[in-house]
Amino acid sequence: MNSLTRTRSASLIAARFSVLGSMALLAASVILPTASAQTNPGATGDPCVSPAIIPQMVREGNSIRVSPAHLVSQPAGARENERGVALTQAPDTLRTLEEAHHWFEKAARKGYAPAQVNLAVLSLAGWGTPPNAGAALYWLSEAARQEYALAYFDLGILYLQGCGVRQDDHQAFSWFERGANAGDSVAQLNLGYLYDQGLGVAQDRTQAALWYRKAAESGVAQAQYNLADLYAHGQGVPLDESMAFAWFQKAASQGHTGARIMLGSMYANGRGTKKDLPSAYAWLSAAALQGDNRGSTTLQALERQLPLDQLAQSKTRAQSLAHSPNPANPSELAFLH
Fold it and tell me: pTM for the complete prediction?
């Protein structure tokens, strides 16, 4: 059974906000389509922020999507950080982004780690300030010094991408490992990928499977896909097509198009599940409707095999799968808490 490429996470680089309103970065994917560029008054041609980061910034309408901070106490800098978060919920204008940067900086200078990470991402993306990867590295390092978990993840991305620092897979591995051990599910996914590919560490697919599983059990679709792929090939885990099917199914239910193609292929060939041509067509067609046509050859073959009534039903199901809201990936929820 052919498999699509395992990848490390869901977007090129995107802003993430922590539970206390901080931002973090999300690592690269090579199989998912890149979002179209969006207007950003602070964007420049800095290679760290364009075209990688700016097109992937997560927004709702014209606003950055940020949930209110939930704070048990009010340590120094917390109120200033909250004001910055509130400003990022306002319409995206140069003035509001500059004000958000101002408040995050005040909080960061008071030693408030979530604000330090927020300020780092604004500095990296050029939101309300000229892009400055060096400033981002400084503030992330300050937050990491306080053992703030999302800073570990972000530093891993900077070293993985060579953004403001010399590209260094070993350093990326070290930071992702710290984030993974702190419970960050996307850091766990990236750590699994580095073990999987032997980047910054000796290749060890048993360890890759272990970390993919941790992230997969947290609901990260890309981790579910990667773990399924290991089961499909018997790499780091026993060869088990029924387990591969189960994990592909979980990722497919979240809208992961690669998983939908694999699920359709398994249904078409009766691998890991009972052969079911209508379901195969529905999943492959749903992926195609989402813009992923890698299953087109199988789709054409299925169209010749299915009776017209079953084909019509499968097309209707595919439309529903392609257009129904998908459960939010935990890596996306972590963008903006």
Answer: 0.77
